[in-house]
Amino acid sequence: MSTKIAFITGASRGLGRDMALNLAKDGVQILFTFHQNESKANDLIAEIENMGAKAKAFQYDAANPMSGKDLMAEVTDFLNQENGQPNFDFLINNAGTGLYKPIEHTTEADFDDMMNIHLKSVYFLTQAALPYLNDGGRIINISSGLTRFSLPGSSAYAMMKGGIEVFTRYLAKELGNRKITANVVAPGAIATDFGGGSNRDNEEKRATIAGITALGRVGEAEDIGGSIAFLCSDKAGWINGQRIEISGGMLV
Predict the structure, then answer these.
(1) pTM over cut 0.85
(2) Are 166 and 122 in contact (CB under 8 A)?
């Protein structure tokens, strides 16, 4: 049986890192992007290789959405050299940044940043990837609990994630003839350095989150990656066009 290959954006740290490690545990070859922190990317490569799996990192700036075509050319050139063919099995669109501003203080530049990073880059990177995604493959787009519940200060970010949820349903519909599934994973509040790390470092905010979460705590990166690995497994082949929230029961 040939080794499966996953391509994950934004995996040098946080949620993406845990996704990569969980997939590597299943023997999946990991290709991933980082934005600036090459040393963290190299640390992840070393950790994956110590597990007996393969990994390769590529630099990518999601704020430049039309660069996805060049990125995909770089990835497929590597795969051709490494494996003798350019195709891969799993596309996981995870890269992103946060914005916490009320509507009255959100500038056009802020809005455009969120649109480019979270919506336009995902659309056009996915478009560039489709010719190389194996039939029977998987697309997983990362959204947010903030598309279901509303907390002040996240309007622009949540709007773009809402767009990604619509896009995912269209992917599921249009790619069904290739037996490619497309699903959304929507994490709740997670204690990483995302958005300045307030879910990790702000004790008042952490207490508030714990109080509105059925399982009584803030989520950790390690709460997410296993679900991504499951969605890429044979066991999840009939899950398609779905939004799966992983929030510990936040605001249920």
Answers:
(1) yes
(2) no
29 strand-pairing partners: 5
Bridge partners of residue 219, in order along the sequence: 190
Is residue 182 within 8 A of residue 231, CB to CB? The reply is no
Active site residue 157: yes
* Cβ-Cβ contacts under 8 Å for 234 (sequence gap 6 or more): none
Ramachandran class of 14: left when φ > 0, alpha when ψ lies in -120 to 50, beta otherwise: left
Do residues 183 and 242 make contact, with C-beta atoms less than 8 angstroms apart?
Answer: yes
C-alpha distances in Å from residue 186, one per residue of 20, 175, 223, 244, 252? 17, 21, 12, 6, 14
Walk along the chain (252 residues) and give the pLDDT tens digit of each residue. Answer: 689 999 999 999 999 999 999 999 999 999 999 999 999 999 999 999 999 999 999 999 999 999 999 999 999 999 999 999 999 999 999 999 999 999 999 999 999 999 999 999 999 999 999 999 999 999 999 999 999 999 999 999 999 999 999 999 999 999 999 999 999 999 999 987 776 777 788 888 899 999 999 999 999 999 999 999 999 999 999 999 999 999 999 999
Which pair of structure tokens corresponds to residue 118? Answer: 């979270």
Q: Please, what are the domains in the chain? A: 5-246 (3.40.50.720)
Q: Which of 100, 132, 157, 170 is catalytic?
A: 157
